[in-house]
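Lecture 7 notes: from sequence to structure.
We start with the chain below.
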Amino acid sequence: MQTVLFHSTIFGPIHSRRLGTSLGVNLSPADGKICSFDCLYCEAGFNAQGPGTAGLPPRQAVCRLLEEKLADMRSKGENLDVITFSGNGEPTLHPDFEGIIDDTIRLRDKYFPNVKISVLSNSTRLGSESVERALRRVDNNILKLDSAITPTMRLIDRPGSPDFTSERVIEQLARFGKDCIIQTMLLRGEHNGIPVDNTTPEEIEALTEAYRRIAPASVMLYSIDRRTPEQALVKVEKTELEEIAARIRNAGINVTVS
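Predicted structure tokens for the same chain:
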């Protein structure tokens, strides 16, 4: 079974194809995965691998480790573009997420005031007032929408809640508008013999209408870049991504491809 990618709370910096030189913050356990989705394409593997034994890193530990790393990087004159919350699961599930964002903003301002703070979220916790407040304070609030058609979304993302629908999350995303960036993974293939494809004309039309409704600052389209737990998935090549992006741009939406 594919296992978690990150075995520490602070990792990197690494080069992100979308964000630049990125220092990662993993709010999930260092030896397991905790997520409200169980995506077919998740680079950290399926949730069945379990949450491990380390538990969620306490707020105080996250703050201490992040300050140590930022102070070290500054003393060495190293470059940094962004501090990115991602890791082995959904960062907004951490019970102290808002406080950790407050700490991160304070430390960023102290050590690297020009650096951006990004959160990669699967959008499942947008009903929490605390999470919403925190996401409105970061520079890059990157929220997931893989399909505007609920059965397709549930097939690809496999949310833990039976009540989670594309219709509901689109309405929640629309509250952010220009204060968010929408990230969409495009792929095709199959899972347990069931076809998977969110690149069909019907899917792209529904996504385009959802983007119009949300009116985000921009949309990020991307495809598979590393090994996925469902191995019967196929990467959408960049030329096709660009073709799809051009169709969406015709609707007046700012789209980037990576």
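Points to note: Residues 201 and 244 are 9 Å apart (CA to CA). The two ends are 28 Å apart (CA to CA).
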